[in-house]
Amino acid sequence: MADTPGKRAGTPEGPPAGGGKQPRSVRVVLLALMIAMMLAMLDNMIIGTAMPTIVGELGGLEHLSWVVTAYTLATAASTPLWGKLGDMYGRKGSFMTSIVIFLIGSALSGMAQDMGQLIGFRAVQGLGAGGLMVGVMAIIGDLIPPRERGKYQGMMAGVMALAMIGGPLVGGTITDHWGWRWSFYINLPLGAVALVAVSAVLHLPKKRSQARIDYLGAALLTVGITAVVLVTTWGGTEYAWTSARIMELIGIGVAALVGFVFRQTRATEPIMPLHIFRNRNFTLMSLIGFIVGFVMFGATLFLPLYQQSVQGASATNSGLLLLPMLGAMLVTSMVAGRITTNTGRYKIFPVVGGALMTVGLYLLSLMDTDTSRFTSGVYMAVVGLGMGCLMQITMLVAQNSVEMKDMGVASSTTTLFRTLGSSFGVAIMGALFNHRVQDVMAEKAGALGSKVTEQSAQLDAASLAKLPEAARVAYQDAVSSGTHGAFLLGAAVAVVALVAAVFVKEVPLKGAGPKAADAPADGDDDTATAKAPVTEAV
């Protein structure tokens, strides 16, 4: 093929955003991308608040967890496929297709007449959601040079914070005033705006690859990811960790993933080209992204639980309880992005972020029944500062480590690792938390304590209020002990992110602004490593 790598990669026609692209056009596209990103992140937050009402109308309480699991599975399994489709056939078309599928799933979910239908339609919605986040990241990677991309980190972090804080509030409001079906229908006008804006304003070169999609590799990866997510979802809850069902899933998952890796060495157009992992920075960023997902979703699960159970906070405004962490994350992400854009330097942020995240999680592990809301808020802010240094930098460096033609798979792989990290974080920290709570309750409240937590170690506010005084005090002690273990584990895992960050090599950001010409060439060997397979392919 005679095209140059840059042309073949699907870069936008004309100058990039930082130099000549019409600002209004870029702003409209970015607004549409942020709406799509918010849809992907907001959905589970809204639905979580509406679930009691949904169960009350549709029944099927025993299948409740599948409403979330089906969505999560479909999202995780489809993420790598969307990234590869964008690389092969064009980013714009695949992104718009994912929006349409997501909106169809949303409309069907809102019309569901029983729990079985809702679970199936949520899977359809999840298939579309898998392409939303990847599409946003990859299109930004196409439109905006890495050096300039830092300026938009604050915008993406703001959308994330807005979804996590506002999701439960919006979900509760919609369910109370419009009914639970509008928790799904609300996606339709927002998605339509994003779809129209992307269709009208986004202009990327059309691509049509002659290679066939690696269907066998896609199937093996889907089976492997599905097994991993089911193990982390069911382990310790639906089934004991040592049960035959969990062991079977582990065996299936390992076999499928080993088969997938082998297949990627043979496929003409692999779903996840293994050569991207030859780049040290990309591999390190995938690892750090996994750990950020592990820590972040574990923290967002147990912090509200601690504040509601131990500090007596209201469950209604549970999203607001995370404001110190999310606010700090937002501010730090904006500052890190500006500094990265102005200097072209970024290694300091993963290192500082890993250190702050480790310290913050250790501080959270020190919380007990006497810890004030102000103190816990300060501890959360330290964690937020660390995550703010890491959240968007991981994607920025990962994209900078690959050729433009692999932008989609780089974005989807990094996103997938973060998703898998969140699954492992919730499962492992949750198992440790539940085990500790049940042990302390049995120790301090005897048979009553064991009875209280035999179904679940996590009690809602109504259940907690009905407990005798002695049992309630014992439960508060148990939750404090459980969060201590969970956050101490999080701190130990965060140390791995800090060590990984130390080994990151500061390669000059591609497409840099005025200072690009002065950027040192000390990272050329890593850049060349990423480019070598592309050169051979061309």
UniProtKB/TrEMBL annotation:
GO cellular component: plasma membrane
Principal location: membrane
InterPro entries: EmrB-like, MFS, MFS_dom, MFS_trans_sf
Source organism superkingdom: Bacteria
Compartments in which it is found: Cell membrane
Residue ranges constituting the Major facilitator superfamily (MFS) profile domain according to the UniProt record: 29-509
Region (Disordered): 1-22, 512-538
Entries under SUPFAM superfamilies matching the protein: MFS general substrate transporter
Single GO molecular function: transmembrane transporter activity
Keyword Transport assigned: yes
Transmembrane spans: 28-51, 63-83, 95-113, 119-140, 152-170, 182-204, 216-236, 242-262, 282-306, 318-336, 348-366, 378-397, 485-504
Pfam families: MFS_1
Membrane topology: Multi-pass membrane protein
Alphabetical UniProt keywords: Cell membrane, Membrane, Transmembrane, Transmembrane helix, Transport
Compositionally biased intervals (Low complexity): 529-538
PANTHER family: COMD, MAJOR FACILITATOR SUPERFAMILY
Family (UniProt): Belongs to the major facilitator superfamily. TCR/Tet family.
Name of the molecule in the record: MFS transporter
Species name: Streptomyces pactum
